[in-house]
Amino acid sequence: MKVVVNLKAYPCDPVEVATAAREVSDASGVDIAVAPQAAHLERVAETGVETWAQHVGPVEHGSHTGSTLAEAAAEAGATGTLLNHSERRLKLADIDGALDAAERADLETCVCANNPDQIGAVAALGPDAVAVEPPELIGTGTPVSKADPDVVTDAVEAAEAVDDSVAVYCGAGISTGEDLTSARELGAEGVLLASGVAKADDPKAALEDLVAPL
Ligand SMILES: O=C(CO)COP(=O)(O)O
User: Fold this and answer.
1) What residues act catalytically?
2) How confident is the model at residue 114 (pLDDT cuts 50, 70, 90)?
3) pLDDT tens per residue across span 77-100
4) Domain for residue 72, yes or no?
5) DSSP SS3 for 82
6) 7 is in an annotated binding site
7) Is the pTM of this model over 0.95?
8) What is the ipTM of this complex?
9) Which domain holds residue 66?
10) 6, 91, 187, 192: least CB-packed within 10 angstroms?
11) Is the CB of 120 under 6 A from ligand 1?
12) 138 CB less than 6 Å from ligand 1?
């Protein structure tokens, strides 16, 4: 199972979370990536943790003020990127352009989507992974794997029908080892989570709990 910890714009210490993630990943052998704010990519990458951008734009070098250039994210140490997060929605053409940008910069990609139909559509664009995250469960602490397990199994089916080489992750409300195990039993190959770690009093303990059953 892959674990991607999205720090969003939460007021946590990105280096503390990244260091904890690297230590837990090293101790457990579980692949854990951290996606901080773009301005924190370099400091997070310096901890040695697998570092992802939260977004890159469908742009090349040029006149694109305020964009996140895939090459700049890679130079800062990112090796992957989320795209089309529910809080950073893109038009289909821009997802396609951002995937091209990520490929140019050699970034692993995970395209998020709200539901299984959208998962099928974005899987067709050829990302490395897709992640189904029902927006109404994001940040609630109620895991998608319990509240809406069909969303996960239907997303796995939808992606497989289009391209079975695309990994399927799920997210929203995931915070415990039990949530992770249920996600795996439903066919997910990874999870995306945020508040369960970024808002935890002890992010390292939260990560240890998360990977304990693996
Ligand atoms: O949006 C998410 C991960 O990208 C999920 O957020 P929560 O883990 O806070 O529900």
Assistant:
1) 85, 133
2) very high
3) 999 999 999 999 999 999 999 999
4) yes
5) strand
6) yes
7) yes
8) 0.99
9) 14-169
10) 91
11) no
12) yes
Q: Which atom of ligand 1 is nearest to the CA of 112?
A: 4
Report the C-alpha gap between 35 and 14 in whole angstroms.
Answer: 9
Average pLDDT, the chain: 97
Torsion of CA 169, 173, 174, 176, to 10 degrees: -170
Q: Within a domain: residue 46?
A: yes
Kindly state whether residue 152 falls inside one of the protein's structural domains: yes
Is residue 33 within 8 Å of 52, Cβ to Cβ? yes
Question: Closest by alpha carbon to 147, among 191, 188, 182?
Answer: 182
Q: Per-residue b/e over 53-69, b at no fewer than 16 CB within 10 Å?
A: bbbbbbbeeeeeeebbb
- Tell whether 162 is covered by a domain: yes
Residues 72-76 have a mean pLDDT of 98
| CA 71 to centroid of ligand 1, rounded, Å | 26
144 lines ligand 1 (CB under 6 A): no
Q: Is 193 in contact with 3 (CB distance < 8 Å)?
A: yes
81 C-alpha vs ligand 1 centroid, how far in Å? 15
What CATH number should be reported for the domain holding residue 57?
3.20.20.70
Angle between helices 203-211 and 177-185 (to 10 degrees): 40
Q: Is the CB of 143 under 6 A from ligand 1?
A: no
Distance 87 CA to ligand 1 centre (A): 10
